[in-house]
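seq:
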Amino acid sequence: MDKYKLTHPALRLSPLSQAERRFLERYRPGGLCLFRGEYTELEDVMRLMNELYDLLGPETLISVDQEGGSVLRLPQLPSSPGAMALASGDDEERTYRIARGMARGLRALGFNVNLGPVLDINNNPANPVICERAFGEDPDTVTRHALAYLRAHQDQGIMAVGKHFPGHGDTDVDSHHDLPVLDKTLEELEATELRPFRAAFAAGLGGLMTAHIRFPRIGELPATLSPEILGYAREVLGFDGLIYTDALDMRALLDRYPQHLAAELAVLAGADAALVKEDEDAPERHARILEAFDPDPRAAERSLARWRRAVQRFPLRRPDPALLEAVLSDTELQRDIEAAAAAASSFTGRPPLPIGRGERVLLLAPFGSDGGSASNPVTVYDRLAAPLREAFVHLEVLHYDPVSPDLAAVSRSARTADAVVMATCRRVNMVPGELQLAAQLAQHPRAVHANLWNPYLSHGFPLPSVNTFGFGAASLRALAHTLATGEAPGRIHVA
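struct:
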């Protein structure tokens, strides 16, 4: 039994160190999960993928988190707006074409696994980690777009990995930081959360990722380690593909189980690919985890059989520079991405739009995404200014401190502006200073909130909002169009 094939250590998109090379040669894991690193040029990524192919061969599953929207490990590739943006535009064929373009980009670089689509239904507006990564709140919409996404990937030879089983959409705790607990039965999950998973299994989904969530009415252990929950996927829902754990360094599990023990319990429960991850001294620490890993022999043999089927169905291939050039120059793909972003825009409230091209427009943008400093304003707001300057000839940009805004300075600038656009880019909560500033701006007759991330944060905001569902370049251009035309055709609205 080659137990190491059941482990998929994390690796950075950086030059391979000698320690990493020795680790890979010694243990030859069944797969790797690549995260952002030093490499910013795709030529470097291809060189790394060629090295990994030489070291590990075609029977290796090399995965990456390239969902689209806010979750991108390879932002240099053409990328989709977030899942909720695609669902807001609600064109399944366009979702398929964009996902196909993303899959072709991954194949060109040499990957054979994408850790997507998100199959979760975001049925809790306070969810701090899924949110716009899901295709929405409606099970049918989520299912339709997720199936288009997975078919597009697997048609291109990229294994799609649906996540996070049995559903992460109704939590109000981020499993990166703590263990969520959901008081739901399997019957309750069947009514909503499991519907996209059932459809994906029937459509031939290659991989499934678990959720680090405890369901005490189903079993005592978190889903990743739960024989009841993973057994339900296998025995009742009929899933015989590869089951990945979510990363085992997430606090939901790591605060309770060392990674080697979590991997053992996961394999015993029915998982096949343990995502082990260390950030510091990774090769040495990964080696200690793999050495300590001692899975149940019979469970391990079942998992190895599934791994062998997976690498036969989705073999690793060398990078393809010609294909990469074709993907990067695909104008039809770029048109689809632009159209999807434009179709996603929606309103919360009634923004005072449109804004005339010759009007004086004040763009208010905070320093930093989480209360950063004036010396390091987050680049998304700088990128937002460019499309707004194209749309409005008289644009003034004013950065403010979101923790303690200078209300007097903002008030002076706002008095001379015909329209004020207050931009925010938050996943979880608004900073109190932003709410204070928005309350003051509510006195301006033509102030509007540009919400560049979590659309649920527009609910109860003091200003009417334009929701973009993301902050990619296409979404920022779509925002400028909405401000200039008053058009927001998106189907997903936050009341």
